[in-house]
Amino acid sequence: MHVLCGLPAGIMHLFVRTGWMGYAVGLALVAVVSLFVSFVERYAHLANISMLYLVAVIVVAVAFGSGPAVMTSVAAFLAFNFFFIQPTHTFTASDPAEWIALFLFLLTAITTGQLAAALRQRARQAEQREREAIVLYDIVRLMSEPDLDHALHAVAERLRRELGLAAVAIDVASIDGPATAADGDPEALRLTRLLAREPAQLLGRGASPTATRRGAPGRWIRTVPPRPFGEMRSATHDRLHVVPVRTQDRQLGTLVLVRPSDTQRFTAADDRLLSAVAVQLGVAVERARLRAEATDAEVLRRTDELKTALLNAVSHDLRTPLASIIASAGSLLQEDVTWTRRERREFAEAIEQEARRLNQIVGNLLDLSRIEAGSLRPERGWYDLGALVDDVLGRLRATTIQHPLVIDIPEDLAPVPLDYVQVDQVLSNLIENASKHTPPGTEIRISARRANGEVQVEVADRGPGIPPAALAHLFEPFYRVDRIGPRPRGTGLGLAVARGLVQAHGGRIWIENRPGGGSRFIFTLPLVIPDVAPTAAKGESP
Predict the structure, then answer these.
(1) Dihedral of the CA atoms 257, 261, 266, 270 (nearest 10)?
(2) Residues 449 and 483 in one domain
(3) What is the pLDDT of residues 470-504, one digit of tens each?
(4) CB atoms < 10 A from the CB of 467, how many?
(5) Residues 385 and 352 in one domain
């Protein structure tokens, strides 16, 4: 009885797809095992020595997969039959029981090989899933950056390194216009730029309609005229891999990948990874668009609020001193009334006081506009902080006349680098705010001390304090605390200007309620002059 063996078409397909290496190693291992068994059989006859062939099958299955394992099983079956089953050196068996043993061996070898190959495949899939999870995590982390262009460049670099590509180009439509990023070999990037100039491309990239509808990767398949590309050939186009970047309802752009050579191919796992990356890119771009729209809406809302508050300030806070000036001036101009020298002086002082108030309001408005525009730059010099406080209190004597003042500034406090006019304005606004919102006769305390490379200045009062709900808004322009009783005059600009001026110096400003009643405004000034003066920023707390 002879055995005629042939390989099925499916096995031949596996043979070609996997490559020659696995099959060659399988045949080599079968030959080595056959030589070893032949050597052992010279000295001792072992009943289950054929199990050594299973070791070869398992090794090939784990290393190369299912196809080489099947080939190794068949080769082991033939080798064992040819060399060790009587009569030897033929493909026959004298005992029918030998045939049963041979086919059981073949079945065991194939089954063992397939199980080992399946375990290998699952291990590789687990590794691939882990790799995909790590890459997607990195992509999500990179795309969380507010700067979309920088995030796209980081994603392109990460993909190129992960997949070993020649180049990666990302082209998406953002709310600010087209956003592009590329990373890789200059020649490969030149290819993507040339393709981007082709008007027939979908969004400047060669995604096929099928790939676009599916939102899946697609290979470059369109015939390219030779004129725009010169020396490039169709083999170059095979190196391209295009993945649409889209949301549920529209396409945002494309992800173009260039392989190092036309012999390298993307696997199904690579396609799956790239599709997931494209989805994350689309989500990130859409999220950036929504964030920008929300920011624009918030800016418009705040602008409307500022306009409304400014109109209220102009209609009320500017009209009041103007009315007082007009009334005092009109009284002085009455020819039918004889005013005493003292009365005329009172009218003149009222005009001067209201004019100063108008000047302060206009100055605060101008300072606030410069702060909001980020154009405020301190002109620093080294000044004595105690002398500066004395100048401010001297100018505000009429405002603070009803409050006891306590000055706690060490005489040995070193000069501080500051813009004299701007810090004068900060102290003026804080002290005037304290005098306006505290009952007459209550103490106002101004102190300063050096700590941690900065000077900390404090203006404390014994007024009603600040409601907790208002603490977070007190430095906002035009914000005024609602209180029971008469409302002090003011535009709500003084604290906002003070915050902007302090932050322009690189300092901080905040407010705290004092135990026993009252509040204290604290601001800091750095003792080191920075090389570049910082721009005014939004409010902060310590």
Answers:
(1) -50
(2) yes
(3) 888 788 877 777 654 444 555 667 888 888 889 98
(4) 12
(5) no
CA distances from 137 to 132, 159, 276, 286, 313 (A): 8, 12, 11, 18, 51
Name the 3-class secondary structure at 190. helix
**Location of structure tokens 């099958």:** 57
Share of the chain above pLDDT 70, in %: 71
Q: What is the pLDDT of residues 68-113, one digit of tens each?
A: 878 787 787 777 767 766 676 666 665 666 666 666 666 776 777 6
Q: Which residues contact 394 (CB under 8 A, 6 or more apart)?
A: none
Do residues 376 and 367 make contact, with C-beta atoms less than 8 angstroms apart? Answer: yes
Tokens 């009783």 belong to 485
**Neighbour count for residue 523 (Cβ, 10 Å):** 25
The whole-angstrom separation of Cα 449 and Cα 513 is 19
Torsion angle of alpha carbons 529, 535, 538, 540, nearest 10°?
Answer: -10
* Residue 534 to residue 1: CA distance in whole angstroms: 96
pTM score of the predicted model = 0.45
Q: Please indicate, yes or no, whether residues 338 and 378 belong to a single structural domain of this protein.
A: no
Terminal alpha carbon distance of the chain: 95
E-assigned strands of 344-453? 381-383, 405-408, 416-418, 444-451
Q: Let me know whether 178 and 321 are in one domain.
A: no
Rounded to whole angstroms, the Cα distance separating 39 from 450 reads 92
What are the residues facing 113 on neighbouring strands?
Answer: none
Domain that holds residue 438: 372-526
